[in-house]
């Protein structure tokens, strides 16, 4: 495997993600807050421990993020009835609406960008989608360390 090509892939994926993040806004929410919200939308309700594992965020930091999202009315945190020290989070209707709006906005941005590519590049990129999905791993999975 050519390490220069792998580096180019890493850079291209990171640039694309940053471009999408800069072009779409969600008020005062950070990238990490939006990521946590999206994970809870896709996989929730979730325990905070599992959510920290999926997001790769320190539990103390995750607690602060969830508190902000809870205060904003985007997530709802409830204590685990079996273990009152643990908590679960689930998305609220406004949280779901924000997530769907952001997803639609980012999809539109990507559609517009794909339309600017040559048909050959667009077809090759879309043909590579299964490989890109395999690289990203399963939803809710984590990269091995």
Report on the architecture of this protein.
- The chain is mostly helical.
- The chain is 66% helix and 8% strand.
- It has helices at 3-23, 31-43, 48-55, 59-71, 93-116, 119-127, 129-136, and strands spanning 46-47, 75-79, 87-91.
- It has a three-stranded antiparallel β-sheet.
- The relative contact order is 0.12.
Short note summarizing the structure:
By secondary structure, the chain is mainly alpha-helical. The protein has 7 helices and 3 strands; from the N terminus they run H-H-E-H-H-E-E-H-H-H.
Strand tally: 3
Oligomeric state of the chains present here:
single chain
Give the distance, in angstroms, between the N- and C-terminal Cα atoms: 21 Å
What is the chain-wise order of helices and strands? HHEHHEEHHH
Order of strands in the sheet with the most strands? Answer: 1-3-2
Radius of gyration, whole Å: 18 Å
Largest sheet entry? 3 strands, antiparallel
What is the SS-derived class?
mainly alpha
Distinctive features:
mainly alpha; HTH-type_Bedaq_tolerance; MarR family transcriptional regulator; WH-like_DNA-bd_sf; 145 residues; HTH_MarR-typ; 3-stranded antiparallel beta sheet
């Amino acid at each position: 495997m050519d390490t220069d090509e792998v580096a180019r892939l890493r850079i291209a994926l990171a640039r694309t993600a940053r471009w999408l993040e800069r072009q779409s806004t969600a008020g005062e929410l950070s990238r990490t807050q939006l990521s946590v919200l999206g994970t809870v939308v896709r996989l929730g309700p979730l325990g905070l421990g599992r959510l920290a594992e999926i997001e790769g965020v320190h539990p103390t930091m995750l607690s602060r993020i969830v508190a902000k999202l809870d205060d904003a009315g985007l997530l709802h945190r409830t204590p685990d009835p079996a273990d009152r020290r643990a908590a679960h989070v689930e998305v609220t209707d406004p949280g779901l609406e924000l997530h769907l709006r952001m997803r639609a906005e980012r999809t539109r941005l990507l559609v517009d960008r794909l339309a600017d590519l040559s048909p050959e590049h667009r077809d090759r990129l879309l043909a590579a989608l299964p490989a890109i999905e395999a690289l990203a791993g399963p939803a809710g999975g984590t990269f091995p360390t």
